[in-house]
Write a structure and sequence with these properties.
The N and C termini lie far apart (77 Å). Strands 1, 2, 3, 4, 5, 6, 7, 8, 9, 10 and 11 form an eleven-stranded mixed β-sheet that branches. The chain has 343 residues and is an alpha/beta fold. The protein contains twelve helices and eleven strands. β4 (139-146) and β5 (150-158) form a beta hairpin.
């Protein structure tokens, strides 16, 4: 007697299969599933949530024209050749030009298969580290929010952070607040500019995706080391589409990155920062709050507390430590107020 094997997937309704595919998220796995059968091939393009990890670019034999750590170092050395005597006005130059890589076009073609996607989390590879850029084993975390242009950016930095022993926390005397030295201030301005360049480049990267996916409602662009994160919701994407409409036919990808507007910057600093809840300690702790001089957040009069509320949110792991650090830094009485020209 012949035994007929039954395909149990045929017994599942389409709605349940779509729920499974949306939980799968990974675009590579979903792309492979497209070839399984005709039913999968018709359902998978309807998934509304994707996670995409972009592989690192293989270095060419000749130096490329992209924005690399070496070019960043040259750029910063030219801008910051002398110690800062006054920090009321900072002018940043344009960064080196770059061309879209083949990885970018391949990524765009893969996403075209998912026409109904509403949420995308894109993860970039991470090149280099803070050691190469600023000359020390430092911590730099940032989160930026965009619409048509930059709305806000929060940067949390430290020259080092570590889990302190209970005895050390009890015996450590609170160090008096002091001003940053010229060299220390220069390092933190380098942190700020490099984070803004990364954020504006990721925002520009999103333009082509937005043109091809009109139903997109939420985007997160991060990196594999979780150093920086760009976040955009439905309202911000609508605003970005409106800004792109006049230039939709002029191939927006020819532009290197989104222009950073004139900015208002507030910088808080603590030589030693104790985090009693998590038990960590940060040295050279720095919190930078960045807003456009003429932006929605400035007009609405949002306080720093409202802006920072969702800056580094999380209930576990490092996110919890960083959220605690932001809360402690908000208590600082002294801060630096600066402005930065558009670049």
């Amino acid at each position: 007697m012949e035994v007929v094997q039954q395909d149990h997937f045929d017994r599942l309704p389409d709605a349940l299969l779509l729920l499974i595919f949306n939980k799968l998220l990974d675009v590579k796995a979903l792309s492979r599933c497209l070839s399984v059968c005709k039913r999968f091939s018709s359902l998978i393009p309807q998934t509304n949530a994707l996670f995409v990890s972009i592989p690192p670019r293989i270095p060419a034999s000749k130096p490329g024209n992209g924005l690399c750590l070496a070019s960043l170092r040259i750029f910063f050395n030219r801008v910051f050749t002398k110690p800062f005597k006054h920090c009321r006005r900072i002018v940043a130059s344009k960064s080196p030009s770059s061309k879209s890589s083949n990885v970018h076009h391949s990524f765009i073609n893969v996403l075209k298969k998912f026409e109904d996607v509403k949420f995308i989390h894109i993860q970039f590879p991470f090149y280099g580290s803070g050691i190469d850029l600023v000359g020390g084993d430092c911590l730099v975390k940032w989160k930026a929010e965009f619409g048509g242009q930059l709305k806000s950016c929060i940067i949390l930095g430290a020259t080092s952070y570590f889990l302190a022993k209970v005895k050390e926390l009890q015996e450590q005397e609170q160090e008096e607040e002091r001003f940053l030295t010229d060299d220390e201030l220069r390092v933190r301005i380098i942190w700020t500019i490099s984070c803004l360049i990364a954020a504006s480049a990721r925002h520009h990267f999103l333009k082509k995706i937005l043109l091809d996916h009109p139903n997109l409602e939420s985007v997160v662009i991060s990196d594999e080391q979780k150093q920086g994160k760009l976040c955009m919701g439905r309202e911000e994407l609508v605003e970005m589409r409106a800004c792109m409409e006049p230039f939709a036919a002029s191939k927006p990808l020819l532009i290197e990155r989104t222009k950073v507007p004139d900015l208002s910057i507030k910088l808080s600093y603590a030589p030693e920062l104790e985090l009693p809840v998590s038990g960590y300690r940060m040295r050279g702790a720095t919190l930078v709050v960045i807003r456009p001089v003429d932006g929605d957040l400035m007009r609405k009069g949002l306080s720093d507390g409202e802006l920072l509320g969702s800056g580094f949110d999380g209930d576990h792991g490092e996110d919890k430590v960083f959220a605690e650090a932001v809360g402690e830094m908000m208590k600082m009485k002294k801060s630096y107020v600066m402005t930065m020209n558009s670049f």
